[in-house]
Target: Transposase
Amino acid sequence: MSEKYKPNDATGIYFITISVVQWADVFTRREYCEVICDSLAYCQKEKNLTLYAWCIMTNHLHLICSSPTLANTIRDFKKYTAKEIYKAIQQNPQESRKTWLCWLIKSAGEISSKHEEYKFWQPGYHPILLQNNHIVDQKLNYLHRNPVTAGFVEEPEHWSYSSAKDYAGDKGRLSITFLQ
Model:
């Protein structure tokens, strides 16, 4: 990972994107989104992750967050959620794409540089330091409008797995700290 995309400021607020291997649409099922939400809540409580905004799309998620140990927190988050989502896919009797998804995740692991048993997430998470209010507003708007742009909902706050509801004045799925 180049120096450009490392969280070098332990007090900084970052916009990050975490993507599924091959951009596979895994998060079309509620139970997989719940794994992400539960894991983010755990990281908030136990790993000093501060969430300012978040959005789960079908094949990636965006976070605006901070942590004194962001790289370690995201590493642990990705490792845990990969294992839990892979297990959830295997155990889901309603998962019509089970064979294909398991093959995809196992194949990605085999061809990875570490030759892992399976690989759910693409490498890296592309942290972008939010250095001024203009960039904060730009990334917050992009993150919340992502489901609208994709044609899934008419208004950002209608997307269940996003902090847009919080920013619209309602209570969302996860606790967030509002950006000033």
About this structure: The longest helix spans residues 70-91. The chain has five helices and four strands. Residues 3-167 form a domain with the Alpha-Beta Plaits fold (CATH 3.30.70.1290).
